[in-house]
Each structure stands twice: as structure tokens, then as C-alpha cells.
Amino acid sequence: MLVAAAVCPCPPLLVPEVAAGAALELDTVRAACTDALGVLAAARPDLLVVVGPGDGADPETYPEGTPGSFRGFGVGLDVRLGPDRGVPAGRELPYGLAVGAWLLGRTGWADAPVEGLAVGETLTAERCAEEGEAVADRAERVALLVMGDASACRTLKAPGYLDERAAPFDAELARALGAADTGALRALDTGLARELKVSGRAPWQVLAGAAAGNPVLEGVLLHEDAPYGVGYLVATWA
Questions:
Q1: Which residues make Cβ contacts (< 8 Å) with residue 191, sequence separation at least 6?
Q2: What is the pLDDT of residues 116-161, one digit of tens each?
Q3: For residue 213, what are the CA distances in angstroms to 54, 139, 176, 184?
Q4: To 10 degrees, the CA torsion angle through 1, 42, 182, 126?
Q5: Could you say which DSSP state residue 78 is in?
Q6: 199-214 pLDDT, tens per residue?
Q7: What is the rounded CA–CA span in Å between residue 165 and residue 52?
Q8: Residue 61: helix, strand or coil by DSSP?
Q9: How is residue 101 annotated by DSSP?
Q10: DSSP conformational letter for 46
């Protein structure tokens, strides 16, 4: 059963070495992510699953110990999803899970075994929810670290340019995450999310499915901002 979840953004800029001169601008969101991970630790889970955006048509799982890096962003920084378990070389974490692994390493996570799940934007809401339900059944006490960004169309200089639909979309998303509203997350418009370059739609719908078996979870919105025209949200469910 899902006992806790933390929702965090997943831009590589969250990693100071990648952000370089702009690193200080994201200190507030980093601090909120640290607080959110504290809620996961307090829940004392038997298993933590990091859920993030992927590129595949089907969900992809990553065992504990899978490596990742930010070398594709010009930084010689390597990370690992939990302790090294001798995972065969050649398969690395997608960028969203790599940011999640960086957050866990930064906070010294050692409270439960860790696995990864990447879900692509082509995955339907129903399939995402099914994945979430399956994850929640993996252990008696399951926690999720859910990585994903809101719209990337909040300003003229945003990656997706300015789209007037972005701010209302992000506002409703912030409300849903802060209220642990699984119905609203399941109902997110897949097509609109794609047009607004939302990376977190599928991961959030996995969360909605995982929470179906625990209706008493309460949500708290810890942070909401849109630096660089991209919506960053941090929330906890417990």
C-alpha cells in the first residue's frame, strides 16, 4: 500500500553543477525537495520507487544500483539509484530518474530499498494508473518519489514559448497535488499536456493509481514557481 509520496520537479538544472552560475536561483526549490524527502523517510517505507518521465512506449523498470550521469549536459557527474548492486554496465537512468537519484544521494537516503520506473508521454492515463496500482502492491509500505515538471510555456522565453493555457493548467495541477486529488490527476488532458511540454503527466497519473488503495492520504503543496518559464511543483502526500 502507498503510505507516502513526494512530488518534485526534474530539471537537470536542479543539480548545482549543471546549473553552474544559475545554481543559487533554484536554492528554494532544492530546499523544498529536501523537506519532501524527509516526509518519505518519516513514513518508514519498505520500498521506495522513483517514478519519472521516460522515452519508451512501455514502462521501463530500473533496479537498485542502476547508474546515471549528467555527462550529456556537459558535467562529469555520476549518480546511482541507491547502493551499487552490481547492475550490468550499459544501461543508465533517464534524466528524470537521474535527478531523483541525485536528490536521494544528496539527502543520504538509506531508509529503504530503491527502484526506478520510467513512463513515457504516450502511455495512456489508464495504463499509468494500472502501473501505479501494481507498484503499490509491491510491499506492505510503499513510498513514491515522483519526478516531473509542469508546463514549459509560461513565458516568452520558456522552452515552449508563451501559451496562455499554461498558467491555468499549472494552477489546477498545483491544486490537485496539494489536495491529493487523484481524480483530477487521472483526468489530466494528455494532448494538452503534450502541447504544453509537461513532462510529469504520466508520473503523476502513476501516483494517482498508486494512491487508489489509500484514500486517507493528505496532500501538502510545499513549493510552486515557474523559473525560466517552466512550472516547478513540490508536494507531499502522507
A1: none
A2: 999 999 999 999 999 999 999 999 999 999 999 999 999 999 999 9
A3: 25, 13, 18, 16
A4: -50
A5: E
A6: 999 999 999 999 998 9
A7: 24
A8: strand
A9: H
A10: S
C-alpha cell at 115: 527502484
Closest by Cα among 119, 104, 107, 101 to 207: 119
Of the candidates 58, 203, 188, 206, the one whose C-alpha atom is nearest the C-alpha of residue 136 is 206
The secondary structure element, H or E, covering residue 224 is: strand 219-225
* Angular region, 86: left φ>0, alpha ψ -120 to 50, beta rest: left
14: nearest Cα among 144, 148, 171: 148
pLDDT of residue 20: 85
3-state secondary structure of 236: strand
152, 58 Cβ separation under 8 angstroms: no
Residue in this structure with the C-alpha cell 513514491, named with its chain if needed? 144
C-beta separation of 188 from 121 below 8 A: no
C-beta separation of 77 from 65 below 8 A: no
Task: Find out whether 82 and 104 touch, Cβ atoms under 8 Å.
Answer: yes
